[in-house]
């Protein structure tokens, strides 16, 4: 039995495996420029952020109907459950779908058909976090929030993702204020490729409760002290960091340094179909490569539930935390 954990940094579009991409392409009559799944899997060996993003957006074309989103989410939940994920807070990118004519309702209702049944079907509780693409305009983010209003009972919070540099958090002040007024929780990607100032700005200007990635906080001692003092969770994604060259090799990943500093770190998979593994694979990788012992692994699992948005169900959180404490590594 794998270590129980929550996954807090997972883009559902990044869970599209080559086999499902081909299945959906056939179902929807979408032509993919790859002969078969083997050739497509080779394309997943991209070299940098831009070639990853090109492939990521190209393959989204196969997602057309509610059923496609349901199938995508069910495939993820089955894999996550097999790796010990007990609770998942799942990002989705509505702008990437609306731009190609797939409506907010199709995306949310389709995902919800899987998420609503997830506890019974997979033993995984779930929440949905709507992300804005930060390389799109602030106006587009506001329109997206407006389009989501009929579905807010299914969305726990908002996030900010895609290309970070040149798109500081302050650009999205207005939409974050509007989301806060609607009672939505707030997170944002910051300090992955962008500078530590973006982390500070996400906290001060956007009022975020968690930082996605946040690796570069280490460049600012005062910021680290603040993150430790205020118990701000960081959702780290070690295998993603290597594939997108935020760190050169996994053995140089600063996770142990960050934990030693007292930061509230969690380990997640980001876009697992593309980055070489799901949540449990990321845990295995840091255990083997960074030499994390049982205490550290248990701490990471505990942190994932502490950092999750389970305030509406503290009983559940306590149950998950008890599972972590009772876990036997042998
Ligand atoms: Zn991400």
Automatic annotation (TrEMBL):
InterPro entries: A_deaminase_dom (IPR001365), ADE (IPR028892), Ado/ade_deaminase (IPR006330), Metal_Hydrolase (IPR032466). The active site is at residue 192. Coiled coil: none annotated. It comes from the Bacteria. Residues 4-317 form the Adenosine deaminase domain. It is an enzyme of class 3 (hydrolase). Catalyzes the hydrolytic deamination of adenine to hypoxanthine. Plays an important role in the purine salvage pathway and in nitrogen catabolism. This is Adenine deaminase. It comes from Streptomyces resistomycificus.
